[in-house]
Amino acid sequence: MSSKATSRPLPVMVIATVFLLVWLVIAAFPFLWTTWGSFKVEGDFFSKADWLNAILGPLTTAETGGSLTGAGYYGAWIQEEFWRAAMNTAIVCVCVVSISLTCGTLGGYALARSGFRYAFWFLFFALIFRAMPPITLVSGYLLPFFEWNLWGHLSTTIIVLVAINQPFTLWMLHSFFKNIPADLDESAMVDGCTRFQAFRHVIIPVMWPGVITTGLFSFLLAYNDFAVTTLLLTKENQTMVPKIVSFLGTTQTKGNVMFAVAAAVSITAPLFVMIMFFQRQIVSGLTAGAVKG
Amino acid sequence: MKHSTFFWFVLPSAVLMLLFIALPIVSVVTQSMYAAHEQVVVTVENCGPFGCTETTAVDQEATQALKEAEPLGRYVGTGIYTDRNHLALNEVTAAWFNADGLPDFGSSLMNLPFYRALAFTLTYTFIVTPLTIIVGFFIALAVNTVAGWLKGPTIFLSLLPMVVTPIVGGLILFWMVDARGVLGGALQWLANDPTLSVKASTGLTWIMLMIYGVWHSAPFAFVVYYAGLQTVNQDTIEAALIDGASRWERIRYVVIPHLFPLTTFVALIQLMDNFRVFEPLVSFQAQAHAQSLSYFIFNDLGGETRLLSSAAATSVLTIIGVAILLSPVLIRTYRDFTPRT
After folding, report:
1. Between vectors from CA A21 to CA B281 and to CA B233, what angle results, nearest 5°?
2. Which of A24, A96, A125, B304 is most buried (most C-beta within 10 Å)?
3. How far apart are CA B66 and CA B169, in angstroms?
4. Which is nearest to A132 in space by CA: A159, A97, A163?
């Protein structure tokens, strides 16, 4: 039975529900609309005559014979080789997540367990680095990378993304490790383990919830990045996000903006699945910093 | 933890951050003081049967050799900072003395690319941040009233705008407000003006970019507030109710003070993120109407001629801006960690 304090009078409920419905439409409708529209031809998705065309698709029926068409997807994935970009994104994401978690767990653990003053300064500088807009750093990379022939390789981009990720990863894992009682690894060390053995056998088995949450955010950063990938990769090994932007340049003229629409829907789909499975971790990760601050 | 153990544990992270964050900052500062080499010009005297003529030509080989010998360029000190594309000191002074009244001075400032970018960045930051907080707070209040089994799907849908790739989120909205898109069509119908185009109007572009900003970051504020709402002390609320506080008074005097520390957290993260606004400008292809500092750098870096020095100077100015914005957070963090004596 709910207490009187949490019961709500009717008008309040109505206002809250209406507001919420409006918000949900604003939040989700663009995705629905674009997903549906990606199966139409351009004349329907961008219809000056009647917005209903984008739903019913008379031109799509006239041009392709069916009311839905996969032409945009075919054009993007096969003709423009979007699959190559998707592979590159997969490589970048897997590498970035695994490397930044490896470095981050070691560093975050040490920062959480060290009581010395330099640990604080370390985190302090990480916070400053977190605030640097990535694009300002990229403008610092370009000249040295050109000079040393590092520019244009996937591996360079991966290392750069890991480094840009590191401050955030460290802060997040630092606060997760703080919540694991220090008695746990200290008792292992009393029993004769070295610090690393204690970490390996006692901490690693219990750290996974925190690591998964942090990994999700590392993944998002690598997957969603545009500034670094667009400026550090050549046309041949582009990832998905810069590839979509390059579609806009070339396809607008060819009248194939639908390639970009299809690619945009394709890049969003994995994110949908990810939120569905990891909603709880995302929410807890976003609040982890806030509850402490 | 022993010093040496600590050292080995943090070494990989420390090396990464040193090499790819700290050194680039140094590199940017250095780069910003060098300008690209001027082309080497040689004067050749051609003597023919009808007398001698002097022609000047660019010595490609020498130029190339110079570029290779000193890839940084030639040292110009603060020359790039004060040129027309950055702080434009001469132009600003001239505008100040020639302007009649502040509005006129403002409009001549808007003709200078750096100030235009700065104006947009600041406007964006200081309009989007408070709106995000307010919208996020009300979404959190509303989601809190929803029945248990509906909460999961509601949160799922609410998270979408934040998790989706910013470029893609921007594109999706951009396609919808296109003059032939569904929202663009609706706007034309509402304004009763079939030629209305968001893309063509500076004001509307700014508004759309800010709407995008709120749409993109409201979920973050929502999630933080929603988590905060779960920890509001129910006894205090009940006590306030017994004392005759209305619904709004309970929110105003119990819930909001409880959420206040979260607000500073959200505000600081949002200030940091909004100041670097970049992706939506790419998606909206808005460079004619709105440029942010980040976009300004991107513009210099991209394209055939990479204006590295110009980008570096803007980067340094941006970093200074971030430092100013961030100083309150840094001071607070420093105080939190300093043992109270």
Report:
1. 100
2. A96
3. 45
4. A163
Q: Give dist(CA B167, CA A227) in Å, integer.
A: 10
Residues A122 and A116: their CA atoms lie apart, in Å, by 10
Q: In this predicted complex, what is the ipTM?
A: 0.89
Distances, alpha carbon B73 to alpha carbons B87, B222, B226, B304, B308, in Å: 21, 49, 53, 18, 10
Q: Residue B127 and residue A72: Cα distance in Å, rounded? A: 37
Q: Which residues contact A45 (CB under 8 A, 6 or more apart)?
A: A37, A38, A54, A258, A261, B175
> Full-prediction pTM beyond 0.80?
yes
Determine the residue type at A32.
Answer: L
For every residue of B316-340, which 3-state class applies, written as one string? HHHHHHHHHHHHHHHHHHHHHHCCC
Give the Cα separation of B195 and A275 in Å (integer): 40
Whether residue B221 contacts residue B159, with contact meaning beta carbons closer than 8 Å, is answered with no
The torsion angles phi and psi of A133, rounded to 5 degrees, stand at -60, 130
Q: What is the pLDDT of residue A252?
A: 54
Burial class, A32, CB count within 10 angstroms (exposed 0-12 / middle 13-18 / buried 19+): exposed
The ranges of chain B annotated as CATH 1.10.3720.10 are 114-336
Give chain A's radius of gyration (CA, Å).
24
Tokens describing residue B139? 């979404």
Residue B154 · residue A24 · CB < 8 Å: yes
Residues 205-244 of A with CB under 8 A from B: 220, 223-224, 226-227, 230-231, 241, 244
pLDDT higher than threshold 80 for residue A251: no
Q: What is the mean pLDDT of chain A?
A: 86
Distance between CA atoms of A270 and A289, rounded to whole angstroms?
26
Q: H/E element holding A269?
A: helix A257-292
For residue A207, give both structure tokens.
């750290």
Residue from A1, A10, A89, A139 whose CB has the most chain B CBs within 10 Å, to mutate? A139
Chain-centroid distance of CA B50 in Å reads: 63
Distance CA A110, CA B55 (A): 68
Token pair recorded at residue B25: 């900052």
C-alpha B159/C-alpha A217 separation (Å) is: 14
Structural domains present in chain A: 4-70 (no CATH), 75-287 (1.10.3720.10)
| Helices and strands per DSSP (H, E), number in chain A | 15, 0
Q: Is B40 helix (H, G, I), strand (E, B) or coil?
A: coil
Q: What is the CATH number of domain B114-336?
A: 1.10.3720.10
Mutual angle of helices A257-292 and A240-254, in 10-degree steps: 150
- Give the H/E segment covering residue A13: helix A10-37
For residues B233, B238, B240 and B244, what is the CA-based torsion angle, rounded to 10 degrees? 160
The answer for B 283-312 residues in CB contact with A (under 8 A) is: 285, 293-294, 297-298, 300-302, 306, 308, 311-312
Sites in chain B below the pLDDT cut of 70: 304, 337-341
Which amino acid, residue B112? L
Search chain A and give the residue with CA nearest B27: A140
